[in-house]
Design a protein that fits this description.
By secondary structure, the chain is mostly helical. It has two domains: about 1-65 and about 195-289, no CATH class; about 70-180, no CATH class. Helix content is about 80%, strand content about 0%. The chain has twelve helices and no strands. Helix 1 packs parallel to helix 10, helix 2 packs across helix 5 and helix 7 (about 165-175) packs antiparallel against helix 8 (about 180-190). The chain is elongated and about 90 Å long. It starts with a helix and ends with a helix.
Length: about 290
């Protein structure tokens, strides 16, 4: 994919340079003004439409799909298994454990209190508190991704950096019922929403921009906007070539800005694929770093 991105960059700049040379500087400037107007309109419309499109169209489908994937997910069994693998001595029964996972405060502190109240000693309680905090900080995302059937769940779990507050809220949501609906709902509308809304926003932006560019081209052609300009001289062609290259660089920069915004919106996406490129990473890192 990294090679494909670099080749695409070269193709885009070559095409805009070619059309800039053919159109000349004046025509290229007029077309760019049309493109700028299209970009502004596309940004406004996509920004307004992204949220409703996610909530009303995509989110219900994602929620339904995840409910199917996590149909047999048992938060109490998952936490017990993970902590046992870490060496924690969990003496709580399922009812006690579910009560801990439903606690409104810090879940590791809730574990500590539950262990002490059930007859455990302070050393055991402190150990369980430390190991549960480690699991919720570093292991829960991986465990959930695995249960959701994501192939690269280990890599995804390492990239995901959720605040402990969101992790605790997600665990509490899964512990709230037997059918996992509350947990999946929280996951879709409070954790995945930022990333997926950003992707929708820029997908809509690209589609709207292409449609508007086609409309502007048709209007220019029908209205004969470019037909009454002076003949294109050699100097005008040379300036058009330079302007075309600049326009291509701006197009690539716009795409890089979109990719950087998507990656920044959530750590689920890996920026490594862009770091492996030779040309595109210059544009990407300008916006991402």
């Amino acid at each position: 994919m990294s090679i494909a991105l670099d080749i695409t960059v070269l193709i885009v700049i070559s095409l805009t340079a070619f059309f800039g040379y053919k159109q000349g500087f004046v025509r290229s400037v007029l077309r760019l003004l049309g493109t700028i107007a299209c970009v502004v309109v596309a940004l406004i419309v996509s920004d307004m439409a992204a949220g409703p499109a996610y909530r009303n169209i995509l989110a219900p489908r994602v929620e339904s799909a995840l409910l199917g994937k996590l149909e047999n997910f048992d938060i109490t069994a998952e936490v017990r298994s993970a902590l046992n693998e870490m060496g924690a001595n969990i003496t709580l029964d399922d009812k006690q454990l579910k009560k801990v996972l439903s606690d409104s405060g810090s879940l590791p502190s809730a574990f500590e209190r539950a262990i002490l109240s059930s007859g455990g000693n302070e050393i055991m309680a402190a150990q369980v508190k430390e190991q549960s905090e480690d699991f919720f900080t570093n292991g829960f995302s991986t465990a959930l991704a695995k249960r959701a059937g994501i192939k690269d769940y280990e890599s995804l779990g390492e990239r995901v950096q959720l605040s402990l507050g969101k992790v605790y809220d997600l665990v509490r949501a899964f512990a709230a019922g037997e059918d996992n609906k509350a947990g999946v709902h929280y996951l879709v509308y409070n954790i995945l929403d930022n990333l997926l809304t950003t992707i929708i926003r820029y997908a809509l932006f690209v589609v709207i921009l292409i449609v508007l560019e086609i409309i502007v081209s048709i209007v220019f052609k029908v209205a004969g906007v470019l037909d009454h300009l002076p003949a294109i001289s050699g100097a005008n062609k040379t300036l058009g070539l330079i302007f075309g290259i600049i326009k291509g660089v701006l197009f690539v920069g716009l795409f890089a800005a979109i990719m950087a915004a998507i990656v920044k919106s959530d750590s689920i996406m890996d920026s490594q694929v862009f770091d492996d490129t030779i040309i595109f990473k210059v544009f990407f890192n300008f916006f991402y770093k």
